[in-house]
Amino acid sequence: METEKIIFQATLLSIVILSALFLFFIFLIKSSANKRKADKAGFELALKDKELEQMNAVIVGQETERAKIASNLHDEVGSIMSMAHRNLDYAITKLDNEIPLKEDLQTSLSLLEQSMTKIRSISNGMLPHFLMKFGLIKTLQRLTSQTEATLGNPCHFTTNCPDNFKLEQQREIQLHAILQELVNNLLKHAHPHTIQIILLQQASILELTISHDGVAINQNEYEHLLVHSEGVGLSSIVNRLTMLKGQINYVKTQLGGFVTVEIPI
Predict the structure, then answer these.
(1) Contact, 180 vs 232, CB < 8 A?
(2) Nearest Cα to 192, choosing from 159, 216, 176, 218?
(3) What is the pLDDT of residue 191?
(4) Considering 143, 200, 224, 245, which has the largest number of Cβ atoms within 10 A of its Cβ?
(5) E strand spans, the chain
(6) Residue in 213, 217, 124 with CA at minimum distance from that of residue 176
(7) How many other C-beta atoms are found inside a 10 Å radius of the C-beta of residue 216?
(8) Which pLDDT belongs to residue 262?
(9) What span, in angstroms and rounded, lies between the C-alpha atoms of 254 and 241?
(10) Sign of CA dihedral 37, 48, 136, 223
(11) Does residue 197 contact residue 144 with C-beta atoms inside 8 Å?
């Protein structure tokens, strides 16, 4: 009996030890799997951060180059054309007796004025001087007024942000570029009668909504266009939103639709 008892105890101890070893091995396997998952997640996060960093570098580089071109257009080409305009205008005043020649020169002067206007427009579009000088709120008010003049109907801008509201400059430039692209797309494709721009600060989120009474699309249609459209406008918006860590949502209603952009602040 004593021998059987010893054998039983030894067997029980062996089972306990084997069970403990088994549980220990299970623990090691799970720990290893969790570590691999954590390492993978960390690698993917680092890769995503690297991609964002590279995208940011590309966009900043593009904005820097656009600023240089805009400056050259405004300061150098614009100055030369302004001088040519003054000289041509002065020459016309000296040609009272040469009516046909004067008319030709006046036509050239008109073309020159159109070119100067176009250069100023391109320069301002490439480098948002007004935004950097007067800030985001006044820039959105100005854009609303310009849109109203284009449509010939009342457009409205509403915000709960103070007039001196500011974001980091690069973020303001990106948001302004997104808004310009969205408004241009609406004017081109939705054919609205009126547009309303709403900027709301809600806790740590900045929400920009553009509502209209034109031909609207929903989110699924937007995502389809994003994949199949050959234009660069939508992809430009996506790239800028990625930099801002924001999101966009399209909604179609019975009376038109609206698009909302949300970015963290």
Answers:
(1) no
(2) 216
(3) 92
(4) 143
(5) 156-159, 195-202, 205-212, 247-253, 256-264
(6) 124
(7) 22
(8) 95
(9) 28
(10) negative
(11) yes
Cβ contacts of 6 within 8 Å, gap of 6 or more: none
Nearest Cα residue to 179 out of 164, 163, 159: 159
Domains of the chain, residue spans: 1-127, 128-265
Largest CA distance in the chain: 141
Q: How far apart are the C-alpha atoms of 105 and 87, rounded to whole Å?
A: 11
Structure tokens belonging to residue 44: 């993917």
Quick one: CATH architecture of 128-265?
Answer: 2-Layer Sandwich (3.30)
- pTM: predicted TM-score of the whole model, two decimal places: 0.60
Strand partners, 212: 195, 257
Q: How far apart are CA 135 and CA 240, in angstroms?
A: 19
> ∠18-22-24 over CA atoms, to 5°?
115
| Tens of pLDDT, residues 149-188 | 889 999 999 999 998 899 988 888 889 889 988 998 898 8
Residue linked to tokens 């001087």: 129
Contact 158, 199 (CB under 8 A): yes
The angle, 0 to 180 degrees and rounded to 10, between the axes of the packed helices 233-244 and 2-72 is: 120
Residue 110 one-letter amino acid: S
